[in-house]
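yo, QacE family quaternary ammonium compound efflux SMR transporter is done. seq:
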Amino acid sequence: MKGMFFLAAAILSEVFGSTMLKQSEGFSAPLPAAGVMIGFAASFTFLSFSLKTLPLSAAYATWAGTGTALTAAIGYFIFQEPFNLKTLIGLVLIIGGVFLLNSKQTEAADHKAQLTIEI
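structure:
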């Protein structure tokens, strides 16, 4: 449970850092540029904490996929960036990939539990 909390904090920090990257105007605006550094530093710190209890493949895929989807939503709603069918298909594929990676971890844990019981 603690790992999921850290993963959620990592995702939100990464989305904040990405949003500040857009606002920093090529690192020419000091406050948003500082937000980029703080956001990404916090994100990787929280991600590393989450990896103490979560599998790397599932945590990283969730972090990257969810961050991508949220950043695309922010781009659309805040920065009026285009959102079309190709964008939707890409996001669906990313989210589907995250789901598949996470379901693989669940199946492996279930299989391991079955092996432990049989022995």
